[in-house]
C-alpha cells in the first residue's frame, strides 16, 4: 500500500505569518484579549495590520465592558482618531496612577475645546460575570459640576437593582466575598475631546458597614494628579485628587438575591 504524503511542516523561520490571513483573523486573533492582541500587533508589520481591524477591537470592548454597546457610547467611540475601539480600549483599560502629565503647548487644539458633557459607562462584575451595566450623561457647565464635591448617582436612592450575587447572612463571609469577587469599571468619556479614562480601582479598596446605618459600602478609589489650571484664579489647584466610587448593596430579592445601588 502506498503511504500517504506527510503533512506540511513549518520550519522555525516561517512562523505564524505564513498562515493565510483568514485563518489568523478567524481562528487566532478572535481568541485573544485586548492586552494580548496589542502585544501581538508589535511582533511584525503584517500582524500589526491584522490586529488593527476595528471589528476585533469592537468585540473586545463589547465583551470587556457591556456598557460600551450603548448607542451613545458607540457613536462617540466611532469618531475616535487612530482606530475607534482600539483607541477607546487603550484609554479605558489602564489603571490610573498619581502621575503628573507633561504640560501641553498653548497651541494645542484641545485647549480650545469646552467639555459640555461627560458620559459615564459603568459595569459591575461578580466573579468576572457582568451583573450591572449602565450609561449616564451629565452636563458640565453648571455649578453642580464645577464646585466640589461632584456626585453622580446611577440609581435613584429609593431604588435598587437586582443582581445574581448570592446573599450571605454572615457579615464577615459577605465582606470577604465582595472584597475578592466584586469588581468595577467606571469609564468617564469626554465627548468633546474624544478621550476616556477609567476611574475605578477595579478591586475594592475597602468593604465596611456604615456606623450610622446598617448599609454596606464597597469602595473603589484611585488617586490621580490634578490639572495645573486654577478655577478662575481664585482657588489653587491641588497636587492630587481622589476619585471615589461607592457601591451600596442592601436587601434581598424574591430569590434571595442581593440588591445593589451604585453611586459615585
From TrEMBL:
InterPro entries: AT3G44326-like, F-box-like_dom_sf, F-box_dom
Domain of life: Eukaryota
Pfam families named among the record's database cross-references: F-box-like
Boundaries of every F-box domain copy: 20-61
Protein name, per record: F-box domain-containing protein
Top-level taxonomy: Eukaryota, Viridiplantae, Streptophyta, Embryophyta, Tracheophyta
Amino acid at each position: 500500500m502506498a503511504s500517504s504524503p506527510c503533512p506540511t511542516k513549518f520550519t522555525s523561520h516561517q512562523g505564524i505569518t505564513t498562515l493565510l490571513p483568514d485563518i489568523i483573523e478567524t481562528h487566532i486573533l478572535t481568541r485573544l484579549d485586548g492586552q494580548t492582541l496589542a502585544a501581538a500587533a508589535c511582533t511584525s508589520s503584517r500582524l500589526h495590520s491584522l490586529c488593527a481591524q476595528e471589528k476585533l477591537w469592537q468585540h473586545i470592548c463589547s465583551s470587556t465592558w457591556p456598557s460600551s454597546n450603548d448607542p451613545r457610547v458607540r457613536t462617540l467611540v466611532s469618531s475616535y482618531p487612530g482606530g475607534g475601539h482600539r483607541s477607546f480600549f487603550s484609554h479605558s483599560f489602564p489603571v490610573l496612577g498619581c502621575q503628573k502629565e507633561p504640560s501641553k503647548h498653548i497651541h494645542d487644539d484641545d485647549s480650545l475645546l469646552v467639555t459640555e458633557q461627560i458620559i459615564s459607562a459603568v459595569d459591575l462584575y461578580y466573579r468576572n460575570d457582568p451583573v450591572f451595566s449602565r450609561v449616564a450623561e451629565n452636563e458640565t457647565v453648571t455649578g453642580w459640576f464645577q464646585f466640589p464635591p461632584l456626585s453622580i448617582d446611577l440609581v435613584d436612592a429609593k431604588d435598587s437593582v437586582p443582581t445574581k450575587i448570592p446573599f450571605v447572612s454572615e457579615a464577615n463571609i459577605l465582606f470577604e466575598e465582595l472584597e475578592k469577587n466584586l469588581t468595577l469599571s467606571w469609564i468617564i468619556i469626554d465627548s468633546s475631546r474624544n478621550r476616556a479614562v477609567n476611574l475605578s480601582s477595579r478591586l475594592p479598596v475597602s468593604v465596611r458597614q456604615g456606623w450610622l446605618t446598617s448599609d454596606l459600602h464597597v469602595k473603589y478609589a484611585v488617586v490621580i494628579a490634578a490639572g495645573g489650571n486654577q478655577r478662575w484664579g481664585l482657588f489653587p489647584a491641588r497636587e492630587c485628587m481622589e476619585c471615589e466610587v461607592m457601591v451600596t448593596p442592601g436587601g434581598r430579592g424574591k430569590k434571595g438575591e442581593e440588591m445593589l445601588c451604585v453611586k459615585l
